[in-house]
Structures are given as structure tokens and as C-alpha cells.
Amino acid sequence: MNIFTMIMSVLEDSGLLVLYHAAPEWMAMDERQIIFMLATPFFIGVFLWEYLKIRGNDKLVNEGESVRNFMLGAGYQTTELVFAGLVSFPVYALVWHFRIWDIPFNFFTAVLLWVLTDFCFYWMHRASHRVRWFWAAHVTHHSSERMNFSTAMRQNATNIFNLNWAFYLPLAFLGFNPVWIGVAYALSLVYQFFIHTTLVDKLHPAIEWLFNTPSHHRVHHATNKHYIDTNYGGVFIIFDRLFGTFQAEDEEPTYGITKPVDSKNIFLLWCHEYLDLFRDMAKPGPIHQRLKHLWAPPEWQRDEQEKKDSPL
């Protein structure tokens, strides 16, 4: 049995083969993208409502940038749609094939999956800020200097190749059907669209304590010194409270990244950090130091003296 036959057999056994029936293998559509595509017209409508409220304030919205944000989001959805069937589906199918338990789908397991998916999102999101390889894709989302609903659509088309989806594999290994995981993840992102705004002030303290809110997420997108690398939660903010990364909004946020990208080119907005990463790796030095750029924090640089002393 060759590897292709084995993977297709596992996909059939796991029930994931149904995702391939409506399209060729290279263009498989999963439930996540169906949810995203159905939600996108609604997202556009909500943004237009917000735009009518904040138009004329260049600190909050720029028409050209907003159009680019939706174009960046469309690129992200396209690569996910086209390549997920080749990149992530087979891996999830194989992991689920060797699952520990068969977890049934009911109200209680759905709630459990919702919480566990957010737990995985927290660590994926935290890694996306503290591991440069993951940051190379995530930086696109943070590179806008404005906060509005279109910013939520500002995503990187390389996400499917960046492997951050692997953070959810333990859920499949436990026994959650990958289709459910995908749906939970997609609904989480739908929720997160609505926290990208300046129009909503702080909510009731009980809501602010438990959930990720616009106030918490404004902090996450800010470059204020004590705001950086905080509030990684998706739907909930409790994991930030538990793991020491919570920061309340106590001053007006300044949005963007510490090294702004002065470009309107969509491809550069997707790839600029990869280019910087590979340039840093190409600089002379021991191979283990060059490779360290992949997993070190984005701000890490090799010691100048070490580079001078290196024979390479």
C-alpha cells in the first residue's frame, strides 16, 4: 500500500473523505471555509455600519487600507480553501486515526471542545508573537495602525503553510472529530471579528473578567510598552489571567507594530517578515545560531561580537 492509498484509507475511516466529494483534491472545501464565506458578507455589512460612524477620522479608518484588509482576508481564505486538503487534512486524519478515545458529540462535549479549542488558540496565538517563524505570518494582522472591523480581515495567505494549525492536533488525538475542531475554530474567529473595534467601551465587569472583549483586544493590538505581548485569548480572557499575560486597558492604545512596514503592496505585507527572517539567517555565523532565528522571539538578534568572532 503506497502512502497516498494509506492516507485516503484513513480519511475514509475517519469520515473526513466527505470533504473531498464536492471538489478536486487540490480544492477541497471544509466546514471552516463554508462558515467564513457565509459570514464574510455580514462582516462587510458590519464594517460599513462602523465606517459610517467613524469616517473622516484617519486615526480610526482609512478607505484604501480597509479595502486592502478585505483583499488580504480574501487571499487568506483562498489559500486555506485550496491547500488545506493537501497540507492539514491528511495530518489531522492520521492523528485522529490513532486517537485515544472515541468522544461522542453532545452538548457537554461541545462545550468542552469550545473551551479546549480556545486553550489551544491561546498557546498558538502566544507562540505567534514569541516565535519568529509564526510571527512572520501573524505580523500582517498587526501591521495596521488603525483598529476597526476591517482589521480583523487583515490576515496572511501563508497561514496554511506556517503550521500554526498543528497546535490543535492534540484535540484530534484525544478523540475529537477534526470536523468539530474546525467548526469550533471557525466560530471562534467569527466571535473575534467583533472585538476589533473602538466603538465599544468596557462592558460589564463580569463579561470583562471572563471573555475577550474589544477593550482587551485593543490592548493586544497596541504598541504601548506595557501592552506588548498581552491578551492572547480568543473567546475567553481567563487563560491570560491564569498564565500571567493579562493587561487591562488603562491608557489610549497606539496601534501597529514596532517596526512599521511602509508599503501598500499586498504581497510585501504578506512576506516582509519572512524576507527579514531569511536575511538574518543568511548572515555569517554557526549554523545553530542561524537556525535559532526560526524559534527565537522576533526581537532576538545574534550578538555582534559573536558574529565577528565566527569563522563562517
Architecture overview:
It is globular and about 55 Å long. The protein is mainly α and 312 residues long. It has helices at 3-14, 31-54, 63-87, 89-97, 107-130, 132-142, 159-162, 169-174, 178-193, 205-210, 214-220, 238-243, 266-282, 287-295, 304-309. Helices cover 58% and strands 0% of the residues. The protein has one domain (3-243). Helix 6 (132-142) runs antiparallel to helix 13 (266-282). The chain contains 15 helices and no strands.
Number of helices: 15
Inertia-based shape: globular
**Main pleated-sheet profile:** none
Q: Based on DSSP secondary structure assignment, what is the total number of beta strands?
A: 0
Cα(first) to Cα(last) distance is 46 Å
Rg calc: 21 Å
How would you classify the helix and strand content by structural class? mainly alpha
Strand content: under 5%
Considering DSSP H and I runs of 4 or more, what fraction of the residues is helical? 55-70%
Poorly predicted sequence stretches spanning 5 or more consecutive residues? 14-29
Mean pLDDT: 87
Question: How many domains make up the 3D coordinates?
Answer: 1
Fold blueprint:
Layout: H1 3-14, H2 31-54, H3 63-87, H4 89-97, H5 107-130, H6 132-142, H7 159-162, H8 169-174, H9 178-193, H10 205-210, H11 214-220, H12 238-243, H13 266-282, H14 287-295, H15 304-309
